[in-house]
Write a structure and sequence with these properties.
alpha+beta; 42% strand
Length: 90
């Protein structure tokens, strides 16, 4: 039986990341705008978020003012336990 890649990522520590990116566009520099983004990422280094922010700086004209994040593990130690036996069904 093969374990799903989603479950494997959760065991490794990936959780739900919500990032609010506050930015300013060059044509309206006094207006602070907000972009909300969610993905699965691994705390505390957040490789997916860092990759996205590098993409933003390279491809989007809006200059980032601030980034606020919230992260929640999707699987915690109390959510699973190892079985100490085996049941066979014929």
């Amino acid at each position: 039986m093969e374990v799903s890649s989603d479950f494997r990522r959760r065991i490794l520590g990936y959780g739900l990341l919500t990032a609010e990116i506050l930015y300013r566009m060059p044509d309206h520099p006094k207006l602070l705008q907000s972009f909300l983004w969610q993905t699965e990422d691994m705390a505390p280094h957040f490789p997916e978020l860092n990759k996205f922010l590098k993409f933003w700086e390279r491809e989007i004209e809006g200059r980032i003012h601030a980034v606020r994040i919230a992260h929640q593990d999707l699987l915690e130690p109390v959510d699973y336990r190892y079985a100490k036996g085996e049941i066979q069904l014929h």
